[in-house]
Amino acid sequence: MIDVMGKINKESRILFLFPKPVKEELRQIESGEAPSERLYGMYELMQDGYKVDYTDALYAGPLVQFYLFMKRCKIKWLPFTIFSKILRSDVVVIKDDFYTLAVLAARLTGKRVIYKDSIFLPPKKLVRKLHAFLNIALADQVVAFSESQIELWKSDFPRFAHKFRYIFYPLDKKFYQGNMIECDEKHTFISVGRDVGRDNATLHSCIGQLNQTLDLITLPYLISEKLKKDPRVRIHQYISYQELFSIYGQSYCSIVPLKKDISYPSGIRAIMESMALSVPVIAARTPVLEEYFEDGRDIIYYDPENVDDLIDKVSGLMSGKYDVDALTKHAAQTMERYKIEPYAQEFLAIISD
Known about the structure:
Strand order of the largest sheet: 2-1-3-4-5-6
Order of helices and strands: EHHEHHEHEHEHEHEHEHEHEHEHEHHH
Number of domains: 2
Number of strands: 12
Helix content: 40-55%
Low-confidence stretches: none
CATH superfamily of the largest domain: Glycogen Phosphorylase B
CATH topology of the largest domain: Rossmann fold
Distance between the termini: 15 Å
Mean pLDDT: 93
Radius of gyration: 21 Å
CATH class of the largest domain: Alpha Beta
Largest sheet: 6 strands, parallel
Number of helices: 16
């Protein structure tokens, strides 16, 4: 139920559609095993008494293989379970990729539709432009984590400029506070990232030339065979938060290597998590990251894909060129602006607009 002014209230039924299973994620958040930002405000709204729902229909049950097959065919199917939940909702929030069948079902049944973090690089091919045009046209709002990214999409889709809304990327800072496992002596570097925007080749070259060790938390398909065989690099695919905190505690700094011309929020979660744990960060400079973090005060930037510049920044940090205590202290203060609790309320205000 949405009131006569179009505002969301405690009786409004909000359905979240995620590109991943939610039930186990929610259990881990409730038990304190995982941070709540993994559900991007859904958990906070539930805690505040809002009627929030979700579904794992695409990831469980006898038809999972069929759904995966359809996904490989570039079709995201709409199971009856999801359709029935759309019918019973007032607002449908779709996280990540455009979901054409879901947005069609929602609009045909008079529901409000919000896309969240669904825009990446503006499409170049005609068929992808048409796909994006249709989904944006059907949505009420398209919420993104970057103002510079929004400007790119507005220039490509000026007709729908009014639909794009900015919200900051959040972090469950309370989860990270007090969880750091400090080590008396730092002896490694850490890099966390599982998206295709990561530039692990430059990172590997830097570590090799400095003859340092690296703990790399990533997916195997994102790294070369040469990197996999390097004894100085420990590769982790899936680890617990306790293991992750232990590695952070042993690390000189966190390195976030990104490719050139990244216009979406790649690397932002790894940076925020490092800052929340008071670990200094060296990251490739991108327009999105510059919206969030100030060079020399929150973070140390280097030029993307520039090995020499990355080596210079890493060497400078290790030699005492940078005041690490001041850097991490200021970063922690900056992270106060990006906490999950105000984020949830701001998101609520956006979808009520």
